[in-house]
Design brief:
It contains 11 helices and 15 strands. It is of the alpha/beta class. The strands form 4 sheets. It has an 8-stranded mixed β-sheet, with helices on both faces. Strand 2, helix 2 and strand 3 form a beta-alpha-beta unit. Helix 3 crosses helix 11 and helix 5 runs parallel beside helix 6.
Length: 357
């Protein structure tokens, strides 16, 4: 197989003219280039008013790269990075046209099973008869394509719109559809927020009852900005039962309070373990901590999910347990949580009270 080198790719890209004259290289518009085996990804700088004109350039870049020997997948994306003082203000609130409710599924830290919960929650809501979409807002670590069992690109529509990929009856959008699974996304904050804005506003989500947003872990700039600038109906907090995880979960709750986003409920993941041999229950990470936190913050406790091999295996295999083993006790637990969430959505809620400890 031919070896793809960066110099050759850049040489071919330099032959592509851009509006106003020049080329990507001479105009400083080549924001990034990554090569991973047979996959090549190019990031092209543009501005909002030039995006439509640059779409032809983007397509030409993909075609030029795809024609190179050894290239198996070519991806070119437009980004809108610019100096902060020159950046136009974001809309008062980012929304998704035709979506009744946007729900953030969040955690104060990683490793608590947030994405697994978000995917199975979306599946459960769909089984309850809701029209559902899921947006992977974790730009740096997108996992929705793997968990939803999808290996496809969203289809480009007229007007620079994207048609979301559909899996198990749920509409999906993720940066993971546009890059190889092992490729790192090395972007600064402005580029990340630009990508999130596009995935909200430039994707044909409608009509949807609920859009589930799988938030990045933590309470940093991306999470805060997304919470501030998105029309969220509320947030669902996912935590494991132990004190150290609940400490970070409380930070997440208070972050949403600061931006006036109500807490729709708290889910305790990995709540307990049932021994497959003897059937004995083991509280590996303690238990009940999320319920107590919910009570403390006057938020609904939506339910608990056990630590179980089936949940992990079906998630890794792109077969969420709610649809692949729909009669299992674990699937029923997710269904109960989804029903509780729908009920919580119907009740007007104020933001939780901050508790200083």
């Amino acid at each position: 197989m031919a070896v793809i080198d960066e110099k050759t790719v850049r040489e071919h890209l330099s032959r592509i003219p851009v509006p106003g004259g020049g080329d990507l290289e001479s105009g400083g518009l080549l924001a990034g280039l990554t090569i991973n085996g047979g996959a090549v990804m190019v990031m092209i700088s543009t501005t909002a008013d030039q995006a439509a004109a640059m779409e032809d350039v983007r397509q030409a870049c993909e075609a030029a790269i795809a024609a190179l020997p050894g290239v198996e997948k070519a991806t070119a994306v437009l980004t809108a990075e610019m100096p902060a003082e020159a950046a136009p203000p974001l809309p008062e609130k980012l929304g998704a046209e035709g979506v009744a409710s946007i729900i953030a599924v969040a955690s104060g830290k990683g490793g608590v099973g947030k994405s697994t919960t978000a995917v199975n929650l979306a599946m459960a809501l769909a089984r309850l008869g809701k029209s559902v979409g899921i947006l992977d807002a974790d730009i740096y670590g997108p996992s929705i394509p793997r968990m939803m069992g999808v290996d496809a690109n969203p289809r480009q529509l007229p007007g620079n719109k994207l048609e979301p990929v559909e899996s198990y009856g749920v509409k999906c959008m993720s940066m993971g559809f546009l890059v190889q699974e092992d490729d790192p996304i090395i972007w600064r904050g402005a580029m990340v927020m630009g990508a999130l804005e596009q995935m909200l506003n430039d994707v044909i989500w409608a009509p949807l009852d609920i859009l589930v947003v799988d938030m990045p872990p933590g309470t940093g700039d991306v999470q805060l900005t997304l919470a501030q600038k998105t029309k969220l109906a509320g947030a669902v907090i996912v935590s494991t039962p132990q004190d150290i995880a609940l400490l970070d979960a409380r930070k997440g709750i208070n972050m949403f309070h600061k931006v006036n986003v109500p807490i729709l409920g708290i889910i305790e993941n990995m709540s307990y373990f049932l021994c497959p041999g003897c059937g004995e229950r083991h509280d590996i990470f303690s238990t009940g901590g999320a319920r107590l936190t919910a009570e403390k913050y006057a938020a609904p406790f939506l339910g608990g999910i056990p630590l179980d091999l089936d949940i992990r295996e079906t998630s890794d295999g792109g077969r969420p347990i709610v649809v692949s083993k729909s009669s299992s006790a674990h699937a029923k637990a997710y269904m109960e949580i989804a029903a509780n969430l729908v009920e919580s959505l119907s009740v007007p809620r104020a933001s939780p009270k901050i508790t200083i400890e």
